[in-house]
Amino acid sequence: MEYARLWRLVWSRCPGIGWQRLERIEGMFGSLELAWQAKESDLLHALSGRTRLKPQEAEAIGRYREKLGPTPFKQPLCRDQRRRWTSPLCLLPDDPAYPSALLELDRPPTQLFWQGRGSLWAPLCRGQAVAVVGTRRPSRHGGGMARAIGRALAEAGWPVVSGLAEGIDAEAHQGCLEAGGRPVGVLGTPLSRVYPRHHHQLQAAVGEQGLLVSELAHGTPGRPGHFALRNRLQVGLAQALVLVECPESSGALHSATIAWELGMPIWVVPADASKFSAAGSNRWLGQGATPLLSPADLLSSLGAGPLMARAAAEPTAEHGALQLREAALLGAMGAGASLDQLCDRLRLSPAVLSERLLRLELAGLLRSEPGLWWRPC
């Protein structure tokens, strides 16, 4: 299982290989390991029809395979290879914490890189979050409503999903942060890049207090299409969408269309009909979306969020039982330890330990840090 996951990671980071092509080559060759050993001509034949490669895509894949060589990793993994390929801050579709709702999208992400509070994956897997989207250039009314909605959702225990862009996204995140909530920022860039650049402080705060998510690996060059692709992830992580304000050319309308096709409730904040910045969102009011005049109306429909219920129940018997079962692991960790140190201290394999560490992190008992390092919360 560990090496099957590693092969999926290798292919997921290959340029030009998305969900459909990954499934195609695995089905054609029987395994991703055999596909890696295939001749270029056989790979081109396998990726024919709807998954046909453009010449430049085939060249990029060829360069990637040549760079990694016939054996991208050896058995058993050495320390450097483990750090490169087995990062726990990357989710694959077969991982327990991967939200199954994302598999219903037309283009499910082949990998999800994340940073922040791993315990938020539990409500996100159940779709227990609310997405707030809108224009980068809102009116004063639209920006104020976005911040008020973010604050109200946080106070009611709902994770607030948005894209960390300027305007509505930033206001929703700020409102959530001000209320001590858990914002979820879905990026159109790798986690290591901040866009727009002046959002350094905001992105850091979201990563500290909530969760940052991206399907783009470190070093992926920026492309305008990446910001449109993240719209589907915002919808896939939520159970409802709030469209605050946007013109008819806004990418937020793409999020609303995806939500509508999935049967997700959509609320729209009404705005002045003469405002260009609200022409797109206002149009949704005539297409079946629910008008949102006050954040209180939203909360009366949604009720208390998953974080409110959890806060009232902590410490739970389940958490106590988990702490007892993992007493040896928590004791070996002390104030903090790396994966290699834990393997040496407990004489366990990385695969076994990674699964147990992820379970503790999802329960909010551990916090992962760069360099395969964990600390107790």
Shape verdict: globular
Give me the oligomer status. single chain
Q: Tell me about the largest β-sheet.
A: 9 strands, mixed
Sequence stretches where pLDDT stays below 50 over 5 or more residues: none
Q: How far apart are the first and last residues' alpha carbons, in Å?
A: 29 Å
Count of alpha and pi helical runs: 19
Topology (elements, then pairings):
Blueprint: H1 2-12, H2 19-29, H3 32-37, H4 40-46, H5 55-68, H6 79-85, E1 90-91, E2 112-116, H7 121-125, E3 130-133, H8 140-155, E4 160-162, H9 168-178, E5 183-186, H10 200-209, E6 211-214, H11 224-236, E7 240-243, H12 252-261, E8 266-268, H13 279-284, E9 290-291, H14 295-302, H15 306-313, H16 317-325, H17 327-333, E10 337-338, H18 339-346, H19 350-362, E11 366-369, E12 373-376
Parallel strand pairs: 3-4, 3-7, 4-5, 5-6, 7-8, 8-9
Antiparallel strand pairs: 1-2, 2-6, 10-12, 11-12
